Amino acid sequence: MSQPAAPEETEIPEGAAETKVPAYSWYALGVLVVVYMLNFIDRQILSILANDIKADLGVEDDYLGFLYGTAFAVFYALFGIPLGKLADSWKRVRLMAIGLTLWSTMTALSGFAKNSLTLTVARIGVGVGEATASPSAYSLISDWFPARLRATALAIYSSGLYIGGGISLLIGAMVVEAWNGAYPDGGPLGLVGWQAAFLAVGIPGLLLAMWVLSLREPVRGAIDGIPTPEDPEPFRGFVRELFQVIPPFTIFGAASRGTGALLINLAGLFGFAALAWIMTQIAPASASLLPGVVSDQWLFLGIGYYAVYSWAMGLKARDLPTFRLTWGSPAFLTVILGYGMVAFMAYAGSYWGAPYAERALGADKSDLGWFLGAPAAVAGFLGVILGGRMADFLLERRPEGRLYVVLFGLLAPIPAILVAYTTPELTIFYIASFFANMFSAAALGAAAASSQALVLPRMRGLATATFFLSTTLIGLGLGPFMAGYVSATNGDNLSLGVLSTLVAVPFGLVLLLLAIKLVPAAGASVVERARAAGEKV
Fold this sequence. Notes:
mainly alpha
């Protein structure tokens, strides 16, 4: 495939933010969209395969929610932190290509899983690999596009999420039915349809990685008039962050900062351990044939939250400006946590929609690909593109304008979700799901661009990793599991399970109203606050 020519690394002159965006930027954005599509095909294909995996491996909905959500989310989030740091200091194109190779390989290996443990380990590997994608992509996009088009560009990139998620249902259904039709008793190597589907979507990623390597790096920060030289030791920060966020090395990292830091770290360790134990005791066991699923859920999340807490405390000591503009910024926190509530509901609905329709409404697997998956791709694409454009339009009129789009993404899907999971009519379910997907998708580009606007260019990779902590450890780590757990403990009632995730709405509403109040002043004082924390800008 031919590509527009572009200089290897030429600085963008002052005032270029108001000029026409080069064709190469749009081309490169298109490649990133394809990568993100595959990212979510590999992630979301579990939805159409859920009922087959449940039958073959003898598991219940709580495990399926844990597998899709927590097992993936914790490692995706934790490795996203050091990989976000690496995206801020190394070649982002190379990093993305390596990550794409890893998660594609682990997706293919999921096809050889014969039990729940093997499948869980493979999905953990997918999470680690996919953690490279968005920190690299967000940082690249912020250097390819000026601020006036950044929400739009990020929204276009994010459309890959919805296109890939929708296509995954279509691909998964076609592969499963074709494979099981051709090999009703198992095919080569004893593989059944859901295993063949993992192989079908994993292997193409190895070829796509070569295409990604052909992209060229933009000059970091040049488009904003703050060109940043390359880090001469890019992996030093990565290794430091890795040891700061992976237990039990977190304890040694805290001890190196002094007795006070060690005591604070240990207090966090015991606090999160106690919370995980309490949640295990409070949550009754479901009918799952895997009685350890509930304890694994809270163990994984406890480790994840403790690791993030340790990393944040270490970041404060190592890089005070970045800490002040992220974890130390109420505006930044309310934006990412507010969007986390949107993700809490959206992830639950996107994962459980296909199993629910197949199980409760009698939908055929092949029909789900065409009438749920394909419309979901269109809905997500329309929602994220229109939401991104509206966010940029409102930003030109009000400094907090983008956040009204995030608020819309929280509230507008509620009626559609209520209709979808209470109607006995399959057609109405499809229509309501379309609007629920479209409305929630509108929030992503606006939320991502809002978080990027609250940090300096050199901090964008870590800011993206922190942004995705809210979508993973809150949205992905809790939403799908909660729906599956409520279903498993209430007689396989997926309707009640998905509807239970609406509990996130009041929390998200409070957070986003606070963000609307705080963001204008925070966005106007980024450089000043960074300088006050010791940044040399």
